[in-house]
Specification:
Blueprint lengths: L8 H9 L5 H13 L1 H19 L21 H6 L2 H24 L2 H12 L3 H65 L1
Helix pairs in contact: 1-3, 2-3
């Protein structure tokens, strides 16, 4: 390999191809190229590559290159708002509160007087209202008691059925135990 001014032979070949070596260094590289076929082949590859690069037109380097951290790629205020659950929830609550306030203001603007006049026109005596409420409460209590009694009867019937099943199970087990004792006594007496 080439022992030229640089420590790396590839750099010496590159400098030679781009004509960046002094006359003495250039002569040393040429002597080496005459003896080393590997470096001569590498120099030819380098020359083909540089020739291909020289055919490309020169382009103006862009003045501004956008990076991922630039504000260009950040979402706008609407996207940030729409994808934030807390902000969207707060805005929804504010909108609902505003709707309730407007609705209450509109209702209070004249409709409450209409409701008052309807109630006053009906003018049912307080005693009749209290009696109707008491009657409704009594009916609800009777219905609740009837449902409780039905539930108690159902639970008692289930309890009785379970006790009968347990008693039958113990009777069957007692019979099996007696049968096992008798058969053991017969086996023991026969020996």
């Amino acid at each position: 390999m080439i022992q030229a001014p640089s420590d790396h032979p590839g750099e010496a070949l590159r400098d030679y191809a781009f004509e960046e070596l002094s006359a003495g260094e250039r002569a040393a590289v040429e002597q080496h190229l005459a003896l080393c076929g590997e470096c001569a082949t590498e120099l030819e590859r380098l020359r083909v590559t540089t020739a291909a690069l020289r055919t490309l037109p020169d382009r103006e380097i862009p003045q501004r290159i956008a990076f991922v951290s630039d504000r260009v790629f950040e979402p706008n205020w609407f996207q940030r708002f729409w994808h934030s659950g807390a902000q969207l929830g707060f805005a929804s609550a504010c909108l609902l509160a505003a709707a309730l306030i407007v609705s209450a203001w509109h209702f209070a603007g004249g409709k409450t007087t209409e409701v008052r006049t309807i109630v006053q026109a009906a003018s049912v005596p307080t005693e009749q209202i209290n009696a109707a409420v008491a009657k409704a409460v009594a009916q609800v209590r009777e219905e609740d008691l009837r449902l409780i009694r039905a539930a108690d009867q159902k639970r008692d019937a289930q309890y009785r059925n379970q006790m009968i099943a347990i008693n039958e199970y113990f009777t069957v087990q007692q019979k099996r135990l007696n049968y096992a004792r008798v058969s053991m006594n017969e086996t023991g007496a026969g020996q």
